Structures are given as structure tokens and as C-alpha cells.
Amino acid sequence: MNAPTSRPIRLGTRASALATTQSGHVADLIRERLGCEVELVEVATEGDVSSAPLATMGGTGVFVSALRDALLEGRVDVAVHSLKDLPTAPADGIALAAIPPREDPRDVVVARDGLTLGELPVGSRLGTGSPRRVSQLAALGLGLELEGIRGNVDTRIRKVREGHYDAVVLARAGLARLGRLEEVTEVLDPLQMLPAPGQGALAIECRSDDELVTALAQLDDPATRAAVTAERAVLSTLEAGCSAPLGALADVVEGDDGDELWLRAVALSEDGGLSVRMSASGPVDDAAGLGQRLASEMLAEGAADLMTAPHFEDHQ
Ligand SMILES: NCc1[nH]cc(CCC(=O)O)c1CC(=O)O
């Protein structure tokens, strides 16, 4: 296809190794598939500059807003985010123009001495700052010490190498993009660890009134978009009534009447002691409806009460 514009497309990226790798990947896709020139423009975000815990900075949205500001102010034309870091509410003036094919969405363990979770001795120190990972790990009853950790992928792995932690849990997708899969000592089955909604997928955004919306749509993978739409609908529906740790994963599977979407989700109390786990399937073209229905059923089963559950008082 002809280049939609004569000027180079400015693609905004955060400076981290993962962000520049992801952005470089999308820049290549745009060059190959749309035949446009692309230049990378670095954008600093509060999430990169500060080392405060993410929870005190308004969550992972801090990584996203600086890139969106750069888009709206016309400093860049395209922004690439990890979809799991993207808030579910649509942003004014911004289009989610494409979601390319997803990487393997599972979480992985990087442990000392090639160990798996089950092989780590009781009392081993596992670093993760994610409430979703903490609660699901706690629910496994392995007797691990779960400790907060910050820093990029490289820093987290180094903290295991240097003996500060016995293990860390990371998204497989990040390691795959960085060419670090050889560090993985165990891939966690979603039966035990459901990933974050959107994990492993990229979001390509542009201004909603830009002609790029149509051009970028060629990079969209409909199966990935359907899956992450269902997962994010669980998140946005539960967010209204529940701030519990949440995992969700959808796959396009072959059903009796052709392709359908199979969705599973779990909401847990912070200590993993209580959880509401459900699954459902539905038509691929009603992904949002499927996610909303599953989340409503989860709310009816008490998902909203998990954080304030009486067991916190009873068993302390
Ligand atoms: N929380 C930060 C973050 N955002 C996206 C990824 C990895 C790539 C992805 O999930 O798409 C990571 C690192 C991690 O969770 O290990």
C-alpha cells in the first residue's frame, strides 16, 4: 500500500529496554506493512523517573499518560504501550488503532539454581510487587516469603543472580521480547497463575482524528483483540465494585459452530485465602459482552467482598 503520509511517522517510546524493544518491533511492522518512514522519539514518564512504589503513583497508568500527552500535543504520532498497563477507560482524542498478535501471555519464574516454584524451600524469598501475583502465589501454600520489588526486567533478574531474592515472577512476553527466555526456570500454568488482562499484547495508539487510524488498522490481529477485549471487560466491570487482585485470560478456541472465545478469570483476597474463579465462553464478536457477563457473575458470587472478607479479622 502507498504511504499514507509523506512525513516520517514519529513513534513515541519510553526509554526502558523493554519499551524501546517493543517500540522498535512496532516501528518495523509499520515500515514493512505500511511502507512509511518511522522515527523513534523518547518520552520520559513519571513511572520511569520515580522509584516510588507504583501503587502510590496512581498505578501503572503513570507509564501511559506521558505518551498520551505527547500524542495529543502533536509531539509524536504513534504511541506503543504494553496493553496490560493501559487503563480500561477510553482516552479522549485517542484511538486504540491496532493490537498486533499477542506473545505467550503466561507468567514465568526466574529462580536461583534452575529451581521451579515447587522446588523452592519453605521460607524462600520471592520478589514481586504485583497484588495479582502475590495473592495467587500465596494461594498455592508454598510457604514463600513474598516481598515487594521494583525495577526493570534486567534489575529483577540481577537481584536473583546477586542473591537478594531466591526467585522472581515476570511476564514471559517481556523476557521473550528482550531475548532473555533462557533465564526462565518455570513457565506457570494459567491453572495456578492467571495473567493480567491484556498481558503479552501491545497497544498501538494514535490521535483519533488522524488518517493513521485507518492505516494502522492493518496491523490489528482480530483474535488477539477479541481475547483482550473480553479480559479488559472483566477488569472494567469488576473495577466498579471490587478492587481485589484479578487475573483473566481468554483464548479463541474451536467450538461446535466455529470459533468461539473461552474466558477464565479469578478475583482473590490480598492474602489469596479467598477467591472467586469462573469461566465462560461466547461468540468472538461479542467479546466485551462475554467479559461483562462473567464479571457480573463473579460479583454475584461475592468478588466485591473479597477485600473486606471477615477472615482477615478471624485468622490474624
Ligand atoms: N508491569 C510492567 C510490565 N508491563 C508489561 C510487562 C511485560 C510485557 C507484557 O506483559 O506485555 C511488564 C513486566 C512484567 O510484568 O514482568
UniProtKB/TrEMBL annotation:
Its EC number is 2.5.1.61. One of its GO terms (cellular component) is cytoplasm. The lineage of its organism: Bacteria, Bacillati, Actinomycetota, Actinomycetes, Propionibacteriales. Residues 9-213 form the Porphobilinogen deaminase N-terminal domain. This is Porphobilinogen deaminase. It comes from Nocardioides exalbidus. HAMAP family: Porphobil_deam (MF_00260). PANTHER family: PORPHOBILINOGEN DEAMINASE. One of its GO terms (molecular function) is hydroxymethylbilane synthase activity.
